[in-house]
Write a structure and sequence with these properties.
There is one protein chain. By secondary structure, the protein is α/β, with parallel strands linked by helices. The protein has one domain: TIM Barrel (Alpha-Beta Barrel). It is 39% helix and 20% strand. The strands form 3 sheets. An 8-stranded parallel beta barrel has the order 3-4-5-6-7-8-9-12, surrounded by 4 helices. A two-stranded antiparallel sheet has the order 1-2. 44% of the residues are buried.
Length: 288
Amino acid sequence: MSSGVEGAAGGMHAAPPILISLSAFGAAEVRRHGQLWFSELSLAAGADGVEVRSELLVDQASELPAIAHTVQAAGKSLVYSSADYLWAHDGTLAVSALERALAAAETLGASRLKMAIGGFGPASHRTLDDLQVRLQSAPVELLIENDQTPAAGTLAALQDFFATANAQGFFLGMTFDMGNWHWTGECPLQAAAALAPQVRYVHCKGVQRQPQRWIAVPLAASSAPWRAVLRALPADVPWAIEYPLAGDALETVVQLEIEQLRGVATSLAKVAHTHGPILLHRNEKATT
């Protein structure tokens, strides 16, 4: 029996790789055990790769090579997430932050580097050429994430950025965080419809509203229309679990969550085959 899911044209394509964002295990626990330990646990649970977080590194010089060796030896994929912004508050390109992130991603052997745009604005437009030049020799794909800030996490801010870059012939892919839109008061379905052509990587995150704040939860416990959001996004890009993963039998917990997400991918593909195509390529228009 094939492990693929059926595409819009009736052919088979592989289900999306399922990664674990290591922040899902909680900052305190990750700093205590180290990201190598959680990388090994994630792979043992069946993950197709891990996302390493800059803000949770304790000893970058030793941790990154060790994680790289372990994950690459298993034939799995790596993403590096930098907590630094690409542009400073005054709109200038944060060259030192970019260079640090690129160097770390290269040491890790990551295929993708994730960053947020920070203070990108009208004054930043002229710096896109500099960014493009700096990325030309980089062995990593830079992806832009919607974060939880008004400057870099609203639909208007991201549309302005991608429209400006695309107009200059500079395509940058996007990390679409399903949950973060709620922190900025945005509709994730509207964002998915508008930004799907840019999406190259998806952060799967459920949300619930508490009296004073939003919190991240597993998709099964989410109050948001997460299935509809996933249907509106490309079907052939990696998904990463970025909701809390905890429990006494932690490897089993992670394994079950991975299996559930793979089941979701299969069911969404069946629905798409019956009712209409999932978006398969980044340059197609979104369908909901």
